[in-house]
Structure formats: C-alpha cells, structure tokens
Amino acid sequence: MTTHLSARLTWHDTGWNGRICSAPGLNSACMEHEHVREGRDLNVEVPNSGCELSRLLGTTGYMPPCARDANTFGHQTYMIRHNDPVPGRALPSVDEEIPAFSICPTPYRWMLEASFRDIVEDENLLIRGPVSATPGTWVQEDDRQRALLDRFWGKLDAGASLVFFYCNRGNAVDDDANRLIVGVSRIMEVAEPSFFGASSKIPGRFPVWSRRLTHDHQNGGVRIPYQEYIAAGLDVETITCRPPRDLLLPFSYVAEHLSDGQAVSALLAIISIVERLQSDQASGQGVPGDWGGALEWLNSALDEVWAGRGAYPGMGALLRHLGYERGVAYHATVLRDIERRGVDPWEHLSGVLERRISAEAGHEEGLARAAAEWQKQKPSRQLLELLVQFELTSDQFSGIANAAVRKERGIKASNEAIIENPYCLYEQDFGTDKSAPVGLEVIDQGMLPEGEAAHFRKNPPLARNDRRRVRAVMRSVLRDAADSGDTILPLETLITRTMAHFPESRRCNPDLEVVWDSDDRQFYDKIIWFKSIDTPATWHIETASSESGVSIPDELSELQDDLGAAEQDDGVVPELRLVALKRVRRCEIEIAQVVREQVGRLKDLPEAGPDWGVILTKPKTEGGFGTPETAREANALTEKTAALETLYRNRLSVLTGGAGTGKTSVLKAFLTTLREVEGPRSLLLAAPTGKARVRLQTASGYRASTIHQILWDVGLLGSNYRLLDQPLKGKMTYATVVIDESSMPSVELLAALFRGIATKAIMRLIFVGDVFQLPPIGPGRPFLDILRWLRKEHPSCIAELETCMRVESVDGEEMVSSGLRLAAGYRDESGPGDDEIIARAARCQNIGDLSLLAWEDHDDLLVKIDQALNMIGIAPGDNSAFDASLGITTKDWKHSESWQILTPTRIHAFGAAEINRVIHDRYRAREIGNATNPYGRLPGPMGDQGIVIRDKVMQVVNQPKWLPKDSKGLRFVANGEIGLVTQSWKKKSKDDFDKMFVAFSTQPEAEYRYGKSEVKDGLELAYALTVHKAQGSDFGTAIVVLPRKAATLSRELLYTALTRFRDRLVVLVERDTAVLDQMRNPIYSETARRSTFMFDLLIGDTAGDLQLPDRYRPEGLIHRAQDGTPMRSKSEVIVYEVLSGLGLAPVYEQRLYSQGSETDYCLPDFTIQHGGKTWYWEHLGMLNRPQYREDWIRKEAWYHRNGFADRLLTSKDHEGGPGGILYADEVRSLARDRILGTA
Prior knowledge:
Layout: E1 4-8, H1 34-39, H2 42-45, H3 53-60, H4 67-70, E2 78-82, E3 94-98, E4 102-103, H5 108-111, H6 116-123, H7 142-154, E5 162-167, E6 180-190, E7 213-215, E8 222-223, H8 226-231, E9 255-258, H9 260-282, H10 291-309, H11 315-321, H12 327-340, H13 345-353, H14 364-376, H15 381-387, H16 394-401, H17 403-408, H18 415-420, H19 423-428, H20 440-447, H21 467-483, E10 489-490, H22 491-499, H23 512-516, H24 521-524, E11 528-534, H25 554-559, E12 575-581, H26 582-598, H27 612-616, H28 631-649, E13 652-657, H29 663-678, E14 683-687, H30 690-700, E15 705-706, H31 707-714, E16 736-739, H32 747-756, E17 764-769, H33 782-793, E18 798-801, E19 807-810, E20 813-816, H34 818-824, H35 834-844, E21 846-847, E22 850-855, H36 858-871, H37 879-885, E23 899-903, H38 912-923, H39 925-931, E24 952-955, E25 959-960, E26 972-973, E27 978-985, E28 995-1000, E29 1003-1011, H40 1012-1018, E30 1019-1021, E31 1024-1026, H41 1027-1030, E32 1035-1042, H42 1051-1058, E33 1061-1070, H43 1074-1078, H44 1086-1089, E34 1119-1120, E35 1126-1127, H45 1130-1141, ...
Parallel strand pairs: 1-5, 13-17, 13-18, 14-15, 14-16, 16-17, 22-33, 23-31, 23-32, 32-33, 40-41
Antiparallel strand pairs: 1-9, 2-3, 4-7, 5-6, 6-7, 6-8, 10-12, 11-12, 19-20, 21-22, 24-27, 24-30, 25-26, 27-28, 28-29, 34-35, 36-39, 37-38, 39-40
C-alpha cells in the first residue's frame, strides 16, 4: 500500500514555470485564495511580468504569495518565507529554498481540531487531546502538531508516491469546476521539517505545517496544457480533467492523502484526457507535446497503483463494521504484508474471524470482538465477502451492509441482488449527509481489477462488455446528460459516449444493435427507458431544386449525383431510437400528464365574472393603474384585462411576457380579486429559490414558499436532499397553485412538486415566467415545453403580455425603454428593429435609459466601471457618494440594490470575484485598515473575501436566522438576498465571539447576526454578481460586463442580464458590439441546445448523431436550413431554402453599413449577390403586433435614408397557425421578378 498526495495549486497563466505570470493583472483566478489576496502586490508584479522569481526577489525584495507552488513545473531556485498560520500567535518566520520542480503544500485538514479525533482513529495514533476545553479552530500544542505532521508526511514514500496537482474554484478554465486535475508526477524527495523561530511568550518548538516536495516531472509525469489551449484559442473544455465524484475529499484542504485505489481513478481520468491530447495533436488541432510518452508513463504508474491497491481494499472497512476500531490500521500493516508475500489476505482474515487462525499480537482483543460479530453475520457473509473487493469508506461499507441504513441511502436492492450485480450500488446509491455515494469507478475497479490487484480472485475475469458494466456506464452517461439539460438522447449518442467513458485500455464497446435488440434489452430496461418512434412528419423536407433557369453542364450534373450511395426508399419512414434514464423520463411524463389533465375551462363560474377593466383602472393609490391616457396604456389595459380573464376562467394557465409588461402587477390584482370574489380558499405561491420566494411574497402580499420547503413539509426530501418518489407525510391540497419564475425548475424539481400536492384537487394551476430567461440547472426545460404545447393545442390558456410600459422620450419621440429594446433582440419573437438599437447605442453611447461603453483590456474595464458608476453620481474614489448610493449614509438598507454590476462568470479578469476585489479594496480601504488594526475595536475581516463593516454582501445559502423578540423580519434569510454589513463587534470576553450584523434589502428593519464561521459559509461580497445569481432580482441600475468570449455566455444569460434593471442599463462590451450581434444567433441558446420529449420530440445538439436520410431534418428549437445554417424562425428558413433553390446564395444577417460610417449599420435578414447587384431581403413575421410594426417603420426608414430602398425586398407571414403562415410561392415569385428578372 503506497500513500499518494494531492496538492492544490494557485492558478498560473504560464504553467507554474517559476516566473511571475505573463499577465498578472489579468489573472484573477488566483485571487480566490486568501493568502494571495492578502499578499499580492500588482504594482510589483505587472512591471515584472514573466520575470524569474529568483531574479525578482533580488531586484525588488518581493516574493509573490503563490511562490510556494509557482515553481511546480519550473527550473528556478529561490527562497520563500513561511509565516505563522495561527492568528494572533506571530511566531518568527522561517525561510526555505525552493529548487526546481518543487512545491510546499499544507495539509490543513490534519491541523483542524475538529478533524483530530477522526484522524487519530483512522491512523491508529496515540496522541493526547487538547489542553483547553475550548481549543479553537486549529490544533494549538506544538507536540500534537509535530505528531500529526510527522504522520502525514511520513506516509509518503519518496520514489514511489505520486503527487496529483489540482486547482479548486480558483481556475481560469471552468467557472463551474470545483476541482480541476492539472497533472501528476512522482515524489522524489520530502524535505525535513522546518520550524518557526522561538518565542518567549509562547514556548515550544512549533513546526511549519507544509513540507517542500520535489518531484520528477523532467523524467516523467504529465501536465495538462490548459494554458496552451487557452492561448491558442482551442476548446479547453475538451481537455478538462475533473476528478471522479467520489474523490471530493482526497482533492480538498490543499494537501490530502490518496490511496492506491483512489490513485487508479485519478490516473484513469488523466489518461482519458491525454488520449484526447494525442488525438488533437494528430489531427493538427492540438498543441506540441510528447503525449505518446506521457501515456507510456501513465500506464506504467497505473500498473503500480493497481498492485498497491490490492485485491481486497475493503477489508479494513469490514473490520470497522464488525466493531474493530483499528481495523484499517490492521489491514494496512498485517494484511497488506501478507498479500505482498503472495498469500491470499482474505483467506487469512476469514480464518481469524472464524477462529481457525490466531490473531496477531496487539490485535487479539479487537479481532476477538470482530470475530464474535462475524459469527452473527452468517446471513450476510456472502455480501460482506463481496464488499471487501471494493474500496469503500467505513460509512459506505456499513451503510450498504446494514439493510435499514441501505434504504436511507436510496439502495433498494437486496443482498442477493447486490451479489448478482454489484454495479447496482452505483446505480442506486445517493449517499447521506455525511457519506458520499459510491462511485462507478469504485465498483468498476473491484469488478475489473488489473495486474496484481486481480490476484486471488476465484471468479473468472469480467468481460469489458458485460451487460452489468455496460448498463452502469450508460447510466453514468445519461445522468451526466441530464445534469447538462438533456432529458433524452438518441441511441447513437448514448453508445458513442459510453464507448468514450473509459480510457482505451478499459473501454467498453457495446454494440448498438445488441443493446437495442437482444436478450440483454430486458436487463437494460430496468433503469433505462427505450423508445422507438417514427420520424415525425414535420421533419420531412422537400429537396430544393435549382429553378434559376441557368443550365448546368451535363458533366457537372452527373458529378452532383453520389453514385456510391445506396438508394433510399423514399416511401419508408425511418425509425428513431431514443433513450433516457427512467427516473428522468418519468418526470417528463408525469408533468405532461398533469398539464393535459388540468387543461380546460372552469365550468361552474358565473358568466359575469369580475369586471377586470374597472379593477385595473382604479387609482394607483388603490392598487390599480389609473385611467389610460395614451394608446400604449390602452393596449396594455386590454392585454391585462384579457390576461386576468384567462387566469380566472381556466384550470391551467400561463402568465408570460417580457420585462416591463406587468406580470407581477397582474398576478397581485388577480390574487386580491380572487380572494374578494371566492373567499379565502387555500393558496400556494411557490418559487424555485429563496430570493424569488421573498420577492413573490413581498410583491403579492401573500405567504410564499420555496419548492424545496414544500417538498420538505410533505416528506419528499431524503438524505443528501435527494428527491424521493413518494411523499412520506401525505400530499397537500390547494385550490390555487401559482409557480413563479417557472423557467427555473428542472423536470425533476417540478415533477417532485406535483407529487407533493393533490393535483386533481387543484382548481387553478398558474405558471408565471419568461421562457427567454436562463433555463433550469438540471434536466429539461419544462416551462418552455409546456408553453410551446399550449400555443399549438390550447392557445386560450396563455395570458401573454406584450406591451412594455417602460417608456421614455428619445430625441422627442416616445418609445419603449432602449434597454428593454436591446434585451428584446434575444427573444425569439424579437422585432425587425432590434439590430438598430445596437448600432445606435454604439454611435451615441447614451440612448434614453441605455448606455454602451467599450473596453479593451482589464485596466480599461476598470476605467469603464468607474465611468458607469459616475453616471449614477459616484465619482472615482468618492467614498461618501459610494456609501450614499447604497443607503449607508441614511441607513436606508433597501438601497443596497440601487445598483449592481453583473458579469457572466465568477472567474477571469472580468469576473465577479475580481471586480468585487477591486471595488472592495478601493471603497473599503479605511474599514479594512480599521479591521486589521489589532488594537482597534472592530473584528478582523471575515470570510474568504475579507468582509468588513459597510460591505455589500449576498447570502449564498437558505438559512433560518435568529432575531430578538419583537424584531421585524422573517427569521429566515434566503439564498440570493442582498444586504449591507451594518455593524461589526470584536468579542468582549472569553465566552463571546466576533460578530457582524447584516440588514437585507427585502427585510430592511431586521439586522441578522453572523459569527465568523457563518460569514465564511453564508456570505459573499456582492458589488458584482454573476448573472445566474441575479436571476429573479432587479436593480435600479444594472451595469452589465460583456466579454467577447466566456464559457457561460448564452442568449438566455445575456437576455437575463439586460432585463435586471429598473431605471438604467449600462452595457460594457469588450472592444465593440460584435458580441451583441453574435448572441442573436440561435446557436448560442442554452435552452435550444437541450433535447427533450415532454410533448413533442425536440432534438438539440445531439441532432447530428441521428442517422437519417437527407430528406429528413431533425426539429428542435434551433431552426436550421438544409445546409445547417441556423436562423431565428421557421419562416426565415423557408425564405432561405426558396432563394437557394433558385440558385441564389443568401447570406444571413450580414452587417450593412451606411455609407461613410463604421458604426451605423443594420442586419438584413438576407443579403443576396446576383448579376453584379446586391439585394437585401427582410421577412416580416409579426406585423400584427404594434411594437413590431413600430420597429419595422423605423428600420424601413433607415433603408430609405441610406439609399438602399430600391434594393429592399420584403416577404411576410399570413394569418393561420400559431405563428402565421408563409407562402413559398410568393417568395419565389418575388425573387424571380426582382432579382432574376425571369417572371
């Protein structure tokens, strides 16, 4: 048994080469780490970018705080300084030399007092406990520290142990990745311990917690070239290496041990990535590197750790289960020594447990207890003998072995079923609050061991394509797909991804036909849904033929035929084969069933219902909108009246519309009137998040709940917050159910809500939301699928608000809010003028409530943020104006949401973490200085971001909170609530603690108390937020940072960001408006990327995997022409296909500039070059909508104003169908007449 190490690195933009980053000002990922935030000096680093650290220290006396790991893959030699990590102790520092390929990681978990007992038990250590009854966070005593650290570092074997390098959230690769494997090498030296200087105040010999490790990267190992892929503009996501899910703890706390079995899993993950690197390099799409040599080294290391893992890695956990606390230590010493001698260790242990073999000295008492318990376990012995083959934690082992606890983990399988198919442990285990679920890799290693780990096995080797293994891998693929949003996959996609799951040496290669149509199908059917359907008729297309009248030479005509292709039977409808996880598919079907059953009119209502017009035109002081005074107000009144009647008359309805259309006002009017008309019937207001719940409750005046609160109340949440199949406490009954922010729940969450309430007893079910906002985190897009189906089948159930009431005067003309007009360009039904607002903003910078500024780099971005803040009265460095803008000066805590910076990502130079740091340092310098003064009255900065008094913060967990009696507040703070630190106090006595008080904008009369640990776990700085965290909120002024490229950037994210403002929108674009044009394209839609099958089959990114004849085109939410060109509407596709069929080559949405300008432009739907002349084609799809007509009038005037009117052609939709009907003959006739001149 060899112990290996994980070591966390601080992100470095040139690969930890012993130098300052090449662009230190842009490396914000490293600022995730407290020691970097506290010690970094960009004033030194920026002018010395790329400098060798050894030279930097000599010329400036400065060493960056990341120096302990900056030379991990470098050739430099330099000195670092170790400072005392224990607050308030301040022992003299000590210096240490860092040679090439070295790192100094710290095992922080081993120094936590809270971990002491578990570590001592697991390691069989005899170390005294703390002296103090209240010892604090860290192990304090020098002898205890030395003993623990000697054990931690002493377990590493130079020349044998591997070190796995990783980054946590502080990486520049993936905003969502909490762990990112960077590379692996072999440890060649573990340095002797260093010690802090002596102190007369604190006697003792206190060790430095870290040790210098030198590894052998120059002779072996691998570093994954993330930085090189980023620099080359390659898709870094394709080489992103994440640890398997069951390796969360081993890749935590900066430095941790890994067992041989865990090293197997980590190496296999790395091998898969290096195989991809080799493939990319071979195809000319990768980066230089000896990837073949890297694979040889990795496979050699893999052989070693397989041997170290052994045949029975679970024997220690078995002994712990049987009551021998030192069982893990007995396994690591006695049993592994027996195995190394070539003797079957299980035969020895079973002999001891059955008292055929005497127990070793020093273990007699513990093994006697285990043997006595073993005698009682006769019914379960076969299961226990199986479980020792897997590297399970003690909690996992006991949780599986104990049938009662097993059910709590979600495992329904009996002993016999587990013995028959151990992979079902992975398939069914959800874990508990304290124990992670069993991973696929853990089971796969036990079922398919390699090398010396396969010794002593009595069963024949498992086939790589064994159906149990294939099913488990397919389950993993489908779960990953669901987590990414897909509720279904084509069978072809599933097979392809299954084959790619493991590295080549362990790959399972299921045959598609065997999976689909063999005796094994029934086995797969138990957890996987298979469905064969005919290809929908709507997917069939007519092949466009050339009708240009231009003759094609006979020889070219012959070459256009693919003579090698098999003839297609045009009369046969091809079959689609679909797959899904049954748990996920069940959710879609249940939701669809509820919707179908609920659709219909309420039949016992009086014909003369509430007079909604009278209700809506009440004075504003009485909750109405007043009498309409303009045509727009009259249109809005008509819409709202119709919407309220729809909500009132239908058993199921959808209240939808864009920002500024009045959804919340309509809902409040409806609920108030409904109570007056029908009395106090039971009402459920449900929201997907805590912040949305608070906002819904505040806006409506009625009590609201989060969906998870409801699930908890009915017993639908199991351990680890897993969703159960049935409520344990019975269903709740409501007459009216309103689900707000309906675009946010996944199919699993929405289906769980319907399981928890008596849906057949619902009188009115109302969905409220905007489908163009961010889609759910998790599988599906149920709100959009429901709305799409209702538009087609039951349009009378939709209460749609289209008239935006946020109007302004621009150049003497009254028009809709410029900011919302910009946002509307990222909705599917956007008007023809949505491009005009982009160009106009680029020319003018300020249009009504919209301002647009361009930035070139990180420094310029900060300048533009200053300019944006200046627009709302905050001059650069004006702390008084800054405080006043947040309501601090007047103690008006509601104003904490008066302005907000929004960005697509948390990491990167344009991310929320970096912007928060800059603003915090700039506007809270005085408060930080006071907090860091050891003689001051204020406590030190708290949390990972150093939060101090007056900081703007966000709550990041749902949390009940204490308030004094008679305080005004909910006694609950929701995830997403924003507030201000109003007070902070240093502890006054030994029994006291440092604390802060926070008042939130939604509860301004309550001040909630937070201790240090509560700040660390529950609060973050909130001057800048990611757009995801801002969904469901709005702010007086929204400042949106928009880079050209970000992994999280999508149409929905941009639309959500642009609609978060109430008064003013400031958009900060990188370089120019190109990204605003680009995001209009539907291929950037995260919602449309998904594949779902709630009512209709809608295929997203996986459409290319379907093996269909050319005459079929998969239908999804992205409309594509036959050549694959994506467009924003089906009518545009028809226009494109007709023009192409005439031999023309239309170009979609190409910029058309006015003469002499580089900023005044529009985007014609199609640009057509023919016969030396250029034509511009616009398709008008929704002229029946007033706003659409207004937009078209302005755009048409642009064509006339710039001299393009004579080359402008238009087509339009006619009435009929959900979105209108376009006649292809009209398009063809117009093109022939005007462009080809052949009519």
